[in-house]
Give the backbone structure.
Amino acid sequence: MYNISRYDYERVSFKEDSDHDSFKILTGQFAGTIVTFGRLSLEEINNNNTKELEGRLSFEYEIEKSPMERLELQESPAFENYLGDMLTHIIETAFEDGQYKIGD
């Protein structure tokens, strides 16, 4: 798990006339990479060991620009985990600040 803060990324305008947000990673091994997030979903998972429900965030993304090889990033579990943690931080911050929109 990565300890993401608001200083690790910034929202950027990458795709004009798009409803999807693009973000530039500012720090760490993926610095300089710009991604656009697409569809997001939250799945409920029943944990049989604790009998509690857990959630799993699923998301689509497109690598827009990166100093790294695109294929290397697409096949990297570490990159996908980083994006998941970053997206979780983005969503949590949006709810805390009241700056979110759900649906159309």
Notes: Residues 4 and 86 are 6 Å apart (CA to CA). Helices lie at 70-74, 77-97. The first strand starts at residue 9 and ends at 12.
